[in-house]
TrEMBL record, chain A:
Matching PANTHER family: DIPEPTIDE TRANSPORT SYSTEM PERMEASE PROTEIN DPPB-RELATED
Highest taxon listed in the record's lineage: Bacteria
Gene3D superfamilies reported in the protein's UniProt record: MetI-like (1.10.3720.10)
Name assigned to this protein: Glutathione transport system permease protein GsiC
Organism listed in the record: Bradyrhizobium nanningense
Molecular-function GO term, any one: dipeptide transmembrane transporter activity
Membrane-crossing segments per the record: 9-30, 99-122, 134-157, 177-197, 235-261, 281-307
CDD domains: TM_PBP2 (cd06261)
UniProtKB/TrEMBL annotation, chain B:
Upper classification of the organism: Bacteria, Pseudomonadati, Pseudomonadota, Alphaproteobacteria, Hyphomicrobiales
Domain spans labelled Solute-binding protein family: 76-421
Signal peptide: 1-27
Family: Belongs to the bacterial solute-binding protein 5 family.
Subcellular location: Periplasm
UniProt-recorded name of the protein: ABC transporter substrate-binding protein
GO BP, sorted A to Z: peptide transport
Record's keyword terms, sorted: Signal
Length: 313, 533
């Protein structure tokens, strides 16, 4: 297992290199110029050119790319064109809010979606099943920002139970941290809950047809034990897979959610950087996201061996 | 006790027990000493000379002071300066600083700091460049006195040092001001009423300013950038909210105190809230712009440009930008900011009265337009440019033009508009922008009115008449001469259609009713603003 993990980690290096080259090339050929944004609307073309030179943006592609790769190899993600702050520091500032949002959303999803999927499978074809699957279709169809605005209107403006926006670090207390994340996590989690609930239901339906389930019932095992111990464990592989894939959904969804709830996370940093053409920041974030995604896939592979002992690498 | 308090209590108790972390103690009244403000945009950098965005200028006005400040009557008033003298020939200016001025690091403000700061500012400012072009020397005479000697008189010197247009001539310590004006500073030390809390800065999310205890305000009443900048709060937090709906909800919920520029669509909701005040933020407003490329057909022919003016309905543009609130806009038969002392409508008949589409079509045909594509760059991520772009697409089609509508983002427009290549080869025919009314009072900081060909702003209009009249304004010796010169600039610029103004529009600002002292002006002024619990 250890050698498998090491092999997979080593295998991430070429993936990261390809991602780096791809992102750098894409930004190089994309229209837009950070020097123009910096110089402001009233700047002369000469001012823009001088800023471009001072940022090194007038140098040939290969020299720019080579310099960037060299810095990456030395653990330096570069400096933001706009803020003049190290990209690693900017990412560090934004990591906490995004990680918090993703963790709360993930926990909420697993806590809600898996039981819903199990119950829907158990009561397949019944009204309960239809209600749950109806909710799943609803959750999947509604854009994150629509759910976000609705939640903010009801729970923040009308009922005044929760704040509209912002983020408080965990170091300021558990409730201040959590109260800022509840509405964003529900908004972001809707799609994810719908997806995981549907996959859980489908996987469970298949497992519930198996002979060993019939045997368990014949032995007189309780319904809860059959569903959550015998059936769910055997249905876990596709569920774990979709949860892993969902991490990518969360990353994409976080961009919108963070904007709607004014959470100072990586999603907003990404959007700001793209709109301003802050190349070092965009490259740093994409590298980080691709690394996280590769890491999550690795974790999923490892979890497979825990839920299904037949799987060996 | 409401439900939220109960929830907080329950979850807080449970949560704290789980994490072992404690919530910070909040001092009594701390909330009333902190003003939470939603700015118009993200404070992405904090060098007001390197980055000339308005949001940077607005934040910088808290941290850095200026030698002179423009007041609400648009007059330059002494700020850091105690006195000034001009030589009889008008070529030498001697300035003396007020005593007791200090930077945030405790060091006194000296004449050498001013000399370095003015040198850096002048390299990036249009008026500063004009001064440099005639400069003989800029030197510190002693710790509190400095001298600016010119080769010829520059009557607008005090206006240049006081103006609120970016970049303003902010005064920094010499060691910081010696930074190349095309490179960013890394220290944010000023002598203004607030200190910048660099450690709390999260670009794109939050910026914090703390009261500078050693600031010595002037004794006069504050008026815009002039007078005594008395801070009534200890801390100002800028909270960036990219989504207007979120900002509106946060203001209604009391999570922020002041929102600089609510969008027109949300203003009716805010007006209904009994805890919120809404009013025009900047009476100088903005001027919408339809900017044509004078280098290529069809707009290289003045008849095609005039055809656009003849057909254009400013009402259509204004309603697209600000909606049906008629208090927010007015037609503008010219280029200068309405209700300011020099405002003129001379030559503005072409933009007045009923629109004559047939005459415009005839004039366009006379210009030789033969159906070639007209490349319109439209930034979709800026509501103002998007709204104007939609109206323009319709207008040009009505004129019988073949519209190549390039829907893109502002970053791309900003880059592509600099291209002087033909429209079919990466160039363009027109784009939209808007100019702050504060920049359009005189030609001093009004880059978009300049018509000196290659050196002009994007579109590169070449109108010797306009340029001649602008020079006449710079040379004017009194208000009457200035007024007459502005009228002639307006007429010449309309005759040659330097650009097409799409109208004058205003925006609102909104604040909680427990906040008082908010002044109308071209930027948010925080001095004099107080907040009750």
């Amino acid at each position: 297992m250890l050698s498998f993990i090491l092999r997979r980690i080593v295998a991430t290096l070429p993936v990261m290199a390809i991602v780096a080259l791809f992102v750098f090339s894409l930004l190089y050929i994309a229209p837009g110029d950070p020097a123009v944004v910096i110089a402001g609307d009233q700047a002369s073309p000469e001012d823009v050119e001088r800023i471009r030179q001072s940022l090194g943006l007038d140098r040939p592609f290969l020299i720019q790319f080579g310099g960037w790769v060299w810095r990456i190899l030395h653990g330096d993600l570069g400096t933001s064109i706009f803020t003049n702050l190290p990209v690693s520091a900017m990412i560090g500032q934004r990591l906490g809010p995004t990680l918090s949002l993703m963790i709360v959303t993930l926990l909420l999803t697993i806590a809600v979606a898996v039981p819903l999927g199990v119950v829907a499978a158990w009561k397949a074809g019944s009204l309960i099943d239809r209600v749950i699957m109806g909710f799943a279709v609803f959750g999947f169809s509604l854009p994150v920002f629509v759910v976000g605005y609705m939640l903010a209107y009801i729970f923040a403006l009308e009922l005044e139970w929760l704040p509209v926006q912002g983020y408080t670090p965990l170091s300021s207390g558990f409730w201040p941290w959590l109260e800022n994340l509840i509405l964003p996590a529900i908004a972001l989690g809707c799609v994810y809950i719908a997806l995981v609930a549907r996959i859980t239901r489908a996987a469970m339906l298949e497992v519930l047809q198996q002979d060993y389930i019939r045997t368990a019932k014949a032995k007189g095992l309780g319904q809860g034990g059959i569903l959550f111990i015998h059936a769910l464990k055997n249905a876990a592989v596709p569920i774990v897979t979709v949860i892993g894939i969902g991490i990518a959904l969360l990353i994409g969804g976080a961009v919108v959610t963070e904007s709607v709830f004014a959470i100072p996370g990586l999603g907003r940093l990404t959007i700001d950087a793209i709109l301003r053409r802050d190349y070092p920041v965009i490259q740093g974030i994409v590298l980080l996201f691709s690394f996280v995604y590769v890491l999550v896939n690795l974790m999923i592979d490892v979890i497979y061996t825990l839920v299904d002992p037949r799987i060996r690498y | 006790m409401d439900r939220r308090t109960v929830l907080k209590g329950l979850a807080g108790a449970g949560g704290l027990a789980l994490t072992g972390l404690s919530a910070p103690a909040i001092a009594q009244g701390a909330s009333a000493r902190t003003l939470r403000f939603v700015p118009q945009a993200n404070l992405a950098n904090f060098d007001p000379i390197w980055g000339t965005q308005y949001v940077v200028r607005n934040a910088a006005a808290l941290v850095w002071d200026t030698l002179y400040g423009i007041d609400a009557q648009l007059q330059p008033q002494r700020q850091m300066v105690e006195s000034e003298e001009t030589s009889d020939d008008g070529k030498a200016w001697t300035f003396r600083l007020r005593p007791g001025l200090k930077f945030h690091d405790g060091e006194p403000v000296l004449a050498k700091d001013v000399v370095a700061s003015l040198s850096r500012w002048a390299a990036r400012d249009p008026m500063g460049l004009m001064i440099i072009a005639i400069q003989q020397e800029l030197t510190a005479v002693d710790d509190r006195t400095f001298k600016w000697v010119l080769k010829q008189p520059f009557p607008k010197m005090l206006y240049a040092l006081a103006k609120n247009n970016a970049p303003c001539s902010f005064i920094m310590p010499e060691r910081i001001a010696k930074t190349d004006p095309f490179k960013q500073i890394t220290e944010y030390v000023g002598s203004g009423p607030m200190k910048f809390a660099k450690g709390e800065w999260v670009p794109g999310a939050k910026a914090v300013f703390e009261k500078f205890a050693d600031y010595v305000p002037r004794q006069e009443k504050a008026s815009w950038l002039a007078g005594g900048k008395q801070m009534m709060v200890d801390r100002v937090e800028w909270i960036v909210m990219p989504d207007p709906a979120t900002a509106a909800a946060a203001l209604q919920n009391g999570e922020v105190d002041w929102w600089e520029n609510p969008i027109a669509d949300l203003v009716p909701v805010l007006k209904k809230n009994k805890n919120i005040s809404v009013d025009i933020g900047d009476p100088l407003g903005n001027i919408g712009s339809f900017r044509m490329n004078h280098l290529f057909a069809p707009f290289n022919d003045v008849r095609a440009r005039r055809a656009v003016l003849m057909a254009m309905s400013q009402e259509d543009y204004m309603r697209a930008i600000v909606g049906d609130d008629t208090a927010l806009w007015k037609p503008l038969p010219g280029f200068f900011t309405p209700d300011t002392p020099l405002y003129s409508e001379l030559g503005g008949e072409i933009l007045k009265g009923k629109r004559d589409l047939d005459a415009a079509k005839k004039l366009l045909a006379e210009s030789g337009y033969a159906g070639q594509p007209v490349t319109c760059l439209v930034a979709q991520d800026q509501p103002i440019t998007k709204a104007q772009g939609d109206v323009t697409a319709d207008l040009l089609k009505k004129l019988g033009m073949n519209v190549d509508f390039v829907a893109t983002d502002w970053g791309t427009v900003g880059s592509r508009r600099a291209a002087k290549t033909p429209p079919g080869q990466g160039g363009w025919n027109m784009f939209h922008s808007w100019h702050a009314g504060a920049d359009c009072i005189t030609p001093a900081a009004y880059t978009a009115i300049r018509a000196n060909g290659d050196k002009a702003w994007f579109g590169w209009p070449n109108s010797p008449n306009t340029e001649k009249e602008i020079t006449g304004w710079f040379d004017a010796k009194n208000l009457e001469e200035e007024k007459a010169a502005i009228g002639r600039v307006n007429k010449a610029a309309l005759e040659d259609v330097v650009y097409a103004p799409t109208g004058f529009f205003l925006t609102y600002t909104a604040w909680r009713k427990n906040v008082s002292g908010i002044a109308k002006g071209p930027l948010p002024f925080f001095w004099g603003v107080s907040k009750s619990a």
